[in-house]
Amino acid sequence: DAKTTQPPSMDCAEGRAANLPCNHSTISGNEYVYWYRQIHSQGPQYIIHGLKNNETNEMASLIITEDRKSSTLILPHATLRDTAVYYCIVRGMDSSYKLIFGSGTRLLVRP
Amino acid sequence: DADVTQTPRNRITKTGKRIMLECSQTKGHDRMYWYRQDPGLGLRLIYYSFDVKDINKGEISDGYSVSRQAQAKFSLSLESAIPNQTALYFCATMPTSTDTQYFGPGTRLTVL
What we know:
By secondary structure, chain A is an all-beta fold. Chain A is built from no helices and 9 strands. Helix content of chain B is 0%, strand content 55%.
C-alpha cells in the first residue's frame, strides 16, 4: 500500500474553503484515494474517495492530480463542526480491504 | 439509533484480567473489523471477518482474539490484558457492495 504524507495541522476561517493536501507519490494504478475524518475521539467518518477523476458529494470535493501523485480535499464552506483530524488513505485492492491510517491533518476551523 | 454500537464505551481493568469488547451492527454488512488507536496516531488493524466462519489476522493481532458469533456481532477479547493494550478500540463494518467502512463510537480501554 502506498504511503501518504499530510501536513500535521492547518487552520481556516469559518465559512471559507478548507483545502487539505495529500501527497501519495508511490500510488499505483489500481489504488484508490480515500478521505476519512475523526472528530475528537469519535469513530472515523467516511468523506469521499476517488481513483483518477475528481469527485464531489454533499460533504466535500476531491481533486486528484493527473499523475495521481497528490490530491486535495476541499470543504467548500468550513464550519466549526468540521474541526477534526482528516486522514488521507491510499487503499489497494488486497483481500482485506483494510484502511491504513497515517497521522492525518488536524484541521482547526476558527470562528 | 446507532448502526454500529460498541460496549462498553469505557473500561478500566487490571493487568492479567480477561476482557471482552463487543460490537453489534444493524446495517446488515458482512464484513467487520477491529482497529486500535493509540494517542496521536492513526488506527491499526487487529482482526477482520468477512462472514461468520471467516476470521483473519490484521497487523497487530498478538495478544488478541476474536469471535464472530453472528453476522451482526463481532467480539474482541484480550485474554490477559497488559498496560500497553491501553488504547481506543474501534469496530467497523463494510458492505460487500462498496468499499466504505462505517465505524462505531469506540471503546476506551485502560489497563492498569
